[in-house]
Each structure stands twice: as structure tokens, then as C-alpha cells.
Amino acid sequence: MGKNEVMVDEIPFPSQFMMTTKPLPLMGHGITDIEIHFLQIKFTAIGVYLDPEIVTHLQQWKGKSGAELIENDEFFEAIVNAPVDKFLRVVVIKEIKGSQYGVQLESAVRDRLAEVDKYEEEEEEALEKIVEFFQSKYFKKDSVVTYSFPATSGNVKISFATEGKEDSEIEVQNANVAGEIKKWYLGGSRGLSPTTISSLANTLSAELSK
After folding, report:
1. Domain named Chalcone isomerase: which ranges (predicted)?
2. What angle do CA 82, 87, 93 make, to 5 degrees?
3. Residue-number span of the structural domain to which 39 is assigned
């Protein structure tokens, strides 16, 4: 394993990613999993790449430990809302149909938008576009889904890569949907992956204390 890689549950993640002209370092990583009858089933490994500029938007939490930050949903809200480039890399551990993943994402985002009264026709159309994108995909082990959230817009670019197939991507131009996808992965106590949230809190705590 080179120093340019970080192993996340035996899956190599680049230690940085070029989203535009600036390298984004890997600031958090973890897995999604469930436990059934004391057996852990792992679904995906996750890497969160953030522009280091993000610390300038998190100064009010300077001096807090990772353990304190994990409990603080306002801190994660600030991460989600900070106007910096963000990139998520999700690698498949357990094979599933893309349609299953798409429906899972759709229902999580739809429910969250409905809670805050932001689920309108435009959001429904944006989510339908995402579900359609994943519908025909098959998530073989080591397939990669990425989400690019540019600082300059409220859009999200979603890409899918799997062995033996051409990469495909879509751009979703709906800030409400893009925002809730960010929260699905980065949203503190309601985030999809507690291990990723914990890793992010510890890394940013260290960055803030520099």
C-alpha cells in the first residue's frame, strides 16, 4: 500500500482527489453495514474528500474533541452547508442491484425533504432521474459510485464505474436534492454511516486545532 492510499476495510482509497484544479484530501472514511443475528454484513466503503478551506467555516468548534463533535449535529450541518468543494467516493463491498440502492437513496431523500416541506414537483423529477440512472446498473463488488458537489452551484454530479462497462454519469440540478444527499452521507446522528461520521469528526477536530 503506497502512502498515496488509505485502506478502508481492505479497499484502497486515494489519499486525495482532484475534483477541479485543487486536490481534495480524504477527510473521513467508514462503511455502511447492518448486524443480523450477531453477523455483520458490510455493504459499502465510503471516502469523504473536502476542500481544506472548510476549516475556515468551522472555527466556532475550534478546540472541541472528536468525541464532542460526533454528538453535535450543528457541526455536521455546517460541513454540509460550507461553500467548498466536496466529493464522496462509495465502493461496493456486497453486491446488490443498482435499483435497490437507488430506491434506498430516493426514499431517504424524499422523507427528509417532506419533513421540511421541500418536496415539490422539481424534487420528485430530480429523484426520478437518479432512480432511473441506477435502475439498469448492477453493483458488483468494487464498483464505484461518486458524488461531486461543487462549491459554485447547488448541483450534484453522480458517476458509476464497474469493471467491464463504460463509466456513466448524470448531473442533477436541484439544490434541495443535492443537499439532502450530502446530509444522507454527512448528516451527523442521522448520517448513513456512523463510522464515517466519527472519522470525519476526529479528522476535523485535529485540523481545527492546528
Report:
1. 19-206
2. 135
3. 5-53+82-185
pTM as predicted: 0.96
DSSP state of 70: H
Rounded CA-CA distance 134/145 in Å is 10
**153: nearest Cα among 19, 27, 23, 52:** 19
Q: How many CB atoms lie within 10 A of CB 208?
A: 17
**Distance from C-alpha of 73 to C-alpha of 82, rounded to nearest angstrom:** 14
CA 195, distance to chain mean position in Å, is: 12
d(CA 177, CA 75): 20
Digits of tens for pLDDT over the chain (210 positions)? 346 999 999 999 999 999 888 899 999 999 999 999 999 999 999 999 999 999 999 999 999 999 999 999 999 999 999 999 999 999 999 999 999 999 999 999 999 999 999 999 999 999 999 999 999 999 999 999 999 999 999 999 999 999 999 999 999 999 999 999 999 999 999 999 999 999 999 999 999 999
The CATH number assigned to the domain holding 164 equals 3.50.70.10
Query: Across-strand partners of 33?
Result: 42
In a domain, 203, yes or no: no
